[in-house]
Design brief:
740 residues; alpha/beta; six-stranded mixed beta sheet; GH; Glycogen operon protein GlgX homolog
Length: 740
């Protein structure tokens, strides 16, 4: 009968329950308060300790709070108070460590987007800790997952109890005032970002005790922090640490979501990364990690996924928001059974809705004020900036962030695209925001593999991308420059593979981008050819040097400074193993140790020289009588580039950065003066002669970096008179400091 009604478009009957269980005991709650949302432990006015529970569920007909003891036995509390669409109640005796969830009853009518099902235990969207993992058996689906006719499966309600199969929220008592914490508050222009995975960075580190590897405590360990400090980075950008779930298709293949871009709890640190426990201890462990990084002068930026959740589309599980108020939390199509999907993950949060916007901003403020983080990188940020359909830079989300007294002060990084129509928005986000600049990535990759038709685009990217960001008061540091990110080849794989090798993902190598802009230097993958190996290491030095000399904010990916490889996998999102984990033994190999030393040297150079981290765009004009400009470009002939030179194919580009004309003043109000530099980038397959510009540009030049050499100590300090011709080896960068 259920199948018959589904096919006719009517309301189907529920499936028959499994074995009947005795009804759980029930207790009553006091009225409590509608704010704050979530579970908050407190002592009532009569001196009785307990927890206030509050849940926004606008269209629900009834809400039950479900409490679980250590043995998994359930006690239900009917919430009878309803204020402004928020169901609430105070439960005396509910103490920190209490595990809980909600059951929400209402209409089952998928054709209008109504998917209430009280048989499903739901995670509190405001839960501050989560105990357990989502395994996604059939019972966790609001509909009959394995219904024979899959095209109508989402319309057939599943009345089996999901409580034994899903994690529970945990009541957390938080009275930490952060009075002993000192945020680094690194200016944007001085920042060097290091993207890392909490588990992958620490899992194989020999200096971290085994019981702490893969955890927040492991990242807080002195051995982990020493690497970050020695390298010189100013901020870590953590891949998602919000509680997330694994997708069903991965679990069926024996894999897990390693990256974590599948959030389900926006207030809870992912429990699997905790060494100390998962009944609230993960919160304190995360805070101690933040404090340890702050004490070392390192900021903490979170990669956050507010564009979609782990509940996927209409055939996905019912874990939280879908069962609380599906129509209120998600963007639905005109056919309300279906979800609007601007993310490629099955659903999109409806950020225009006030309660969704509140959920996101409450979460952001919580991580800043109570967890101590310093900023956020927003995954698929264009999806958050959509109004009803189109991306809108005056959207409610961006407007709220701009005026929020907490959030407007932290670092805000947009991944400025989504997969929907008009979703590519690089350069379009408003002031306060920085952006991942994929046009920088593509131009630098193409130059070093010899695929740029001319050097116009490269010139913009090296000098801060003024064509994208010089509007509305934005600055060069609006551009987060990167050559690699977690998504795609590692730096070593970028010069070792031309095609992806994702067979381990179990998707027939169909996943992952085909647009890698990679060059394998003459052999695909691992090779014993010493010439190919040497060329690859040189290309790595070229890419890292280019990145760290460019104007803007550089972002490194953890392990690129060590020569980490993923064996050609450019989409290792499901590889929680040695493919993704950092191999720290690489530091023991002379060639990779030299790469690390060069990276550290370049970052140190950047910190010492303000001309490499400008706070304003170059003008390109002369500011003194001798005609010396703040930025000048030279051909290999030692002549300033003409308009025609920009349009001609050229494997060689000279970039002159003047330290005399840096806008702004220092903290004492004095002019900022620095050395001047000439960088010669040569991507040609053969050596080239380069004429060093003479006066007024320089009297002579001192070698600072020469990427044609593995050992920089052997070449630094060499002097070349201005006007002379130097031979620049094939595929190399020569950085020269101006003398006189």
């Amino acid at each position: 009968m259920a199948q018959e009604r589904a096919a006719q478009g009517g309301l189907p009957a529920a499936v028959v329950n499994g074995p009947r269980r005795s009804a759980p005991p029930t207790v009553s709650a006091r009225p409590g308060a509608p704010t704050p949302l979530g579970a908050r432990f407190r002592v009532g006015p009569d001196g009785v300790a307990g927890t206030n529970f509050a849940l926004w569920a606008a269209g629900a007909e009834a809400v039950q709070l479900c409490l679980f003891d250590a043995g998994g036995r359930e006690t239900r509390v009917r919430l009878t108070e309803l204020t402004h669409e928020i169901w609430h109640g105070f439960v005396p005796g509910a103490m920190p460590g209490q595990r809980y969830g909600f059951r929400v009853d209402g209409r089952w009518d998928p054709w209008i987007g109504a998917r209430w099902n009280p048989a499903k235990l739901l995670l509190d969207p405001y839960a501050r800790a989560v105990d357990g993992e989502f395994g996604l058996p059939p019972e966790t689906y609001g509909h009959v997952r394995d219904w024979p006719e899959q095209h109508v499966a989402d319309t057939v309600r599943d009345d089996r109890d999901s409580a034994p199969f899903v994690p529970k929220g945990v009541v957390v008592h938080d009275d930490d005032d952060w009075s002993d914490d000192h945020r680094p508050k690194t200016p944007w222009a001085d920042s060097v970002i290091y993207e890392l995975h909490v588990r992958g960075f620490t899992k194989l580190h020999p200096g971290i005790p085994e019981d702490l590897r893969g955890t927040y405590a492991g990242l807080a360990h002195p051995a982990a922090i020493a690497h970050l400090v020695d390298l010189g980075v100013t901020a870590v950008e953590l891949l998602p640490v919000h509680q997330f779930a694994h997708e069903d298709h991965l679990l069926r293949r024996g894999l897990k979501n390693y990256w974590g871009y599948n959030s389900i709890g926006y207030f809870a640190p992912h429990a699997a990364y905790a060494a100390s426990g998962t009944t609230g201890q993960q919160v304190g462990e995360f805070k101690r990690m933040v404090r340890a990084l702050h004490a070392a002068g390192i900021e903490v930026i979170l990669d956050v996924v507010y564009n979609h959740t782990a509940e996927a589309g209409e055939l996905g599980p019912t874990l939280s928001l879908k069962g609380i108020d599906n129509r209120g939390y998600y963007r639905l199509q005109d056919d309300a059974r279906r979800y609007a999907d601007y993310t490629g993950c099955g659903n999109t949060l409806h950020v225009v809705q006030p309660q969704v916007l509140r959920l996101i901003t409450d979460s952001l403020r919580y991580w800043v004020t109570e967890m101590g983080v310093d900023g956020f990188r927003f995954d698929l940020a264009a999806a958050l900036a959509r109004s009803m359909h189109d991306v809108d830079m005056l959207s409610p989300f961006l407007a709220v962030i701009a005026q929020d007294p907490v959030l407007r002060r932290v670092k805000l990084i947009a991944e400025p695209w989504d997969i929907g129509s008009g979703g590519y928005q690089v350069g379009a986000f408003p002031p306060l925001w920085t952006e991942w600049n994929d046009r920088y990535r593509d131009a630098v990759r193409d130059f070093w593999r010899g695929a740029l038709p001319d050097v116009r685009d490269l010139g913009y990217r090296l000098s801060g991308s003024s064509d994208l960001y010089a509007w509305g008061g934005r600055r060069p540091y609006a551009s987060v420059n990167f050559v690699t990110a977690h998504d795609g080849f590692t730096l070593r794989d970028l010069v070792s593979y031309e095609g992806k090798h994702n067979e381990a993902n179990g998707e027939g190598n169909r996943d992952g981008t085909n647009d890698n802009r990679a060059w394998n230097c003459g052999a695909e993958g691992a090779t014993d050819d010493e010439g190919v190996q040497s060329l690859r290491r040189r290309q790595l030095r070229n890419l890292l040097t280019t990145l760290l000399l460019s104007t803007g904010v550089p972002m490194l990916v953890a392990g690129d400074e060590l020569g980490r490889t993923q064996r050609g996998n450019n989409n290792a999102y499901c590889q929680d193993n040695e493919i993704s984990w950092l191999d720290w033994s690489l530091l023991e190999e002379p060639g990779w140790r030299a790469l690390y030393d060069l990276t550290s040297r370049l970052i140190s150079l950047r910190h010492r020289h303000p001309v490499l981290r400008r706070r304003a765009f170059f003008s390109g004009h002369a500011h003194s009588a001798d005609g010396l400009r703040d930025l000048a470009w030279f051909t290999a002939r030692g002549e300033e580039m003409t308009e025609g030179d920009w349009y001609a194919p050229a494997p060689t580009l000279g970039m002159y950065l003047s330290g005399r004309d840096i806008p702004g003043r220092d903290e004492r109000g004095d002019p900022i003066l620095d050395d001047s530099f000439l960088a010669v980038l040569h991507a040609g397959a053969h050596p080239t002669d380069f004429v060093l510009p003479g006066l007024p540009w320089a009297a002579s030049y001192e070698v600072v970096v020469d990427t044609s050499h593995e050992d920089q100590e052997a070449v630094t300090g060499l002097l070349h008179p201005a006007g002379t011709t130097v031979s620049v080896p094939a595929r190399s960068v020569l950085l020269l400091r101006v003398i006189g």
